[in-house]
């Protein structure tokens, strides 16, 4: 679904830049663009390790290896005429305050939607579905030491 945006009418007595722009045409912002901007905003938040659930992250790892990162991974948007609603699923770094990270993600997405997309935000729902522990990344020899001999 695409979203058509007509600039608001100018508030002055004369014809302003917005009214002139409206006379020249309209701007259409596709849902995928809105989702991509939300995904970029969420990824830039400190404490966010990744976006998306387990299966999406597996596919994302393959895409990353092929240098075709999906910036909309973990993002779902619903775009109306003047408002947008965003659902985002994140993996947080450990140890961080999950509430603070969720609030920071929400703020970053709201700011991006207002400043870059030019739309009012109805809601931003943040789901934390995992916590990344740095020890998970350590490369070992793949063998676990036996507990008993």
- Mean pLDDT, as a whole number? 83
The biggest sheet amounts to: 4 strands, mixed
Cα(first) to Cα(last) distance is 62 Å
Note the beta-strand portion: 25-35%
Order of helices and strands: EHEHEHEEHE
Stretches where pLDDT falls below 50 for ≥5 residues? none
Number of helices: 4
What portion of residues is helical?
25-40%
Main structural class: alpha+beta
The geometry reads as elongated
The beta-strand count equals 6
The rounded Rg comes to 21 Å
Descriptive account of the structure:
- The protein has 149 residues and is an alpha+beta fold.
- The chain contains 4 helices and 6 strands, in the order βαβαβαββαβ.
- The protein has helices spanning 17-24, 31-43, 54-65, 98-117, and strands spanning 2-5, 27-30, 48-51, 75-79, 83-93, 120-132.
- The strands form 2 sheets. Strands 3, 4, 5 and 6 form a 4-stranded mixed beta sheet that branches. It has a two-stranded antiparallel sheet with strand order 1-2.
- Strand 4 (75-79) and strand 5 form a beta hairpin.
- Helix 2 crosses helix 4 (98-117).
- The longest helix has 20 residues, at 98-117.
- The chain is elongated, with a radius of gyration of 21 Å.
- The protein starts with a strand and ends in a 17-residue tail after the last strand.
């Amino acid at each position: 679904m695409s979203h058509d945006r007509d600039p608001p009418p100018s508030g002055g007595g004369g014809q302003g830049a917005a009214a002139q722009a409206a006379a020249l045409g309209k701007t259409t912002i596709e849902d995928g663009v809105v989702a991509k901007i939300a995904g970029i905003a969420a990824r830039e938040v400190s404490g966010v390790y990744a976006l998306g659930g387990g299966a999406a992250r597996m596919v994302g790892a393959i895409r990353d290896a092929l240098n075709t990162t999906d910036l909309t991974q973990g993002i779902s948007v619903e775009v109306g005429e003047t408002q947008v609603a965003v659902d985002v699923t994140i993996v947080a770094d450990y140890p961080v305050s999950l509430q603070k990270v969720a609030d920071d993600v929400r703020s970053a997405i709201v700011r991006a939607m207002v400043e870059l997309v030019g739309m009012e935000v109805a809601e931003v729902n943040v789901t934390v579905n995992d916590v990344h522990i740095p020890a998970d990344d350590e490369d070992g020899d793949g063998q676990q030491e036996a507990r008993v001999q």
